[in-house]
């Protein structure tokens, strides 16, 4: 496994990570999409058979969760280019919270409110504030934490492989030349 193919140096001394986030796209995001509809419903199975907007609720949930996941990934990559986690941790974490936390939350909630307005359901009768908002905050926290942790793990792998590569190169350089003393004269011999 080549760690250097996963990480590449960028012009402003930051590291570009190729995030391995399939677990988010195949497990967490579908689970959260269904959880939003299931937790937001009093009787999930009864709703499935009786309410006309139930399938539309599921489609909207999938759309909003995957849109939020896409936004988090794009914003994280943009912030990776702008701020180096290694040197400006506090500033980077604040930017991650503001852009990759609040922006997807506000966008999703605005689209949800627009949907409720279209289906003529008052916000007071929906579960958007008391159930879906805390669940959305949890979801965004998990997704952002995944990217932060993965960045640190990939960076540590690069640091370890880079230091072992440097020590191997310095050892090879020592073996390439030998200094031989012959009386009071010193001669350098090249090894092939």
How would you describe what is shown here?
Helices cover 71% and strands 9% of the residues. It has helices at 3-6, 22-39, 44-50, 54-82, 89-118, 128-176; strands at residues 7-9, 15-17, 177-182, 185-190. The chain has a two-stranded antiparallel ribbon with strand order 1-2. It has a two-stranded antiparallel sheet with strand order 3-4. α2 (22-39) runs antiparallel to α6 (128-176) and α4 (54-82) runs parallel beside α6 (128-176). It is elongated, with a radius of gyration of 26 Å. The two termini are 30 Å apart.
Offer a concise description of the structure.
The protein is mostly helical and 192 residues long. The protein has helices at residues 3-6, 22-39, 44-50, 54-82, 89-118, 128-176; strands at residues 7-9, 15-17, 177-182, 185-190. The protein is built from 6 helices and 4 strands; from the N terminus they run αββαααααββ.
Residue share in helix: over 70%
The number of strands is 4
Q: What overall form do the CA principal axes indicate?
A: elongated
Provide mean pLDDT, rounded: 80
Strand order of the largest sheet: 1-2
User: Low-confidence spans: pLDDT under 50, at least 5 residues?
Assistant: 1-12
The helix/strand class is: mainly alpha
Would you list the SSEs in sequence order as H and E?
HEEHHHHHEE
Q: What percent strand?
A: 5-15%
The N- to C-terminal Cα distance equals: 30 Å
- Largest β-sheet summary: 2 strands, antiparallel
Compute the gyration radius: what is it?
A: 26 Å
Summed up, the helix count is 6
């Amino acid at each position: 496994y080549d760690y250097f193919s996963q990480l590449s140096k960028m012009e402003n001394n930051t590291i570009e990570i190729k995030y391995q986030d399939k677990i988010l796209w195949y497990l967490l995001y579908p689970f959260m999409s269904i959880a939003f509809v299931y937790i937001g419903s009093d009787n999930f199975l009864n709703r499935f058979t009786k309410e006309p907007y139930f399938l539309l609720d599921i489609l909207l949930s999938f759309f909003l969760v995957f849109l939020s996941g896409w936004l988090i990934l794009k914003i994280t990559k943009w912030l990776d280019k702008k701020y180096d986690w290694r040197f400006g941790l506090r500033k980077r974490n604040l930017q991650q919270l503001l852009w990759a936390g609040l922006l997807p939350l506000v966008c999703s909630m605005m689209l949800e409110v627009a949907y409720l307005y279209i289906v003529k359901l008052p916000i007071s009768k929906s579960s958007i504030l008391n159930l879906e908002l805390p669940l959305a905050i949890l979801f965004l926290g998990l997704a952002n934490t995944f990217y932060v942790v993965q960045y640190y793990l990939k960076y540590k792998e690069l640091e370890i492989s880079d230091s072992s590569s440097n020590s191997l190169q310095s050892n090879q350089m020592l073996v390439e030349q030998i200094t031989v003393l012959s009386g009071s004269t010193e001669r350098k011999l090249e090894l092939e």
